[in-house]
Amino acid sequence: MNAMRIATYNVNGVNGRLPVLLRWLTETTPDVVCLQELKAPQEKFPEQAILEAGYKAIWHGQKSWNGVAILSRGDIPAEIRRVLPGDPEDAHSRYIEAEIGGLTVGGLYLPNGNPAPGPKFDYKLRWFDRLITHAQGLLAAGKPVLLTGDFNVMPTELDVYKPESWVDDALFRPETRAAFAKLMDQGWTDAIRTLYPDEKIYTFWDYFRNAFARNAGLRIDHFLLSPNLAPRLIAAGVDKQVRGWEKTSDHAPVWIELKD
């Protein structure tokens, strides 16, 4: 059976982590990859190296911060938009959307929001509201859609190694989790949780306090599938080994497989 493998990876600096990214692409050959936190202006994206690895890319860069991209091993992703609608003043590069292989793919990097409460947290919740509105429109269009990336939210206590120490963090505050729940209530399927309802699965481990070795992690990188796409889900996982490589991101790549 033919399957399409789609991955999401917060690279935490695409140029500084390029050897890690290229090694992972070579070893795992996903068909489509959404990247977050490029931390590179538009002209500094390593397009040539990624082409040589077998991938065509579209990206939206930003100096020092943020930045999102979509890579494809087949045709170049057909870009639909590179900004989340709803705030013409928002200059952050946090969303990119394309058509690939009959799917609408939205790659996103949701604001962190710390310190909370405060202006950064307010921005996070406003961005979440815009995402909820846009996601509703995507579902209404009736095409198979997936939203993926770094959502900067642990939806439940199962998604965080020590829930009690995160209660005041912007990634785990009730307002953040309520926004995620509101999004899910539109009918999206959380791919990892659907296949692994009770397992401790993390996608991020801090650089500090030996977090990776202790498996003191968070699950903040998610795949949300529209109702007409969810039945095609056959597998999902985290390439946890990549987090243990030299000069690696604090996130591990996350992937799903969809049957054709």
Automatic annotation (TrEMBL):
Tree of life domain: Bacteria
UniProt GO molecular function: DNA binding; double-stranded DNA 3'-5' DNA exonuclease activity; endonuclease activity; metal ion binding
PANTHER family: EXODEOXYRIBONUCLEASE III (PTHR43250)
Keyword list, A-Z: Hydrolase, Magnesium, Manganese, Metal-binding
GO terms for biological process, alphabetical: DNA repair
Cofactor: Mn(2+); Mg(2+)
Name of the protein this chain belongs to: Exodeoxyribonuclease III Xth
UniProt site positions, description: Transition state stabilizer: N152
Binding note for cofactor: Probably binds two magnesium or manganese ions per subunit.
Active site per database record: Y109, D150 (proton donor/acceptor), H251 (proton acceptor)
Record: residues binding Mg(2+): N10, E37, D150, N152, D250, H251
UniProt domain Endonuclease/exonuclease/phosphatase: residue ranges: 7-251
Site residues (Important for catalytic activity), renumbered to this chain: D221
Pfam family, one: Exo_endo_phos
Record keyword ATP-binding present: no
Family, per entry: Belongs to the DNA repair enzymes AP/ExoA family.
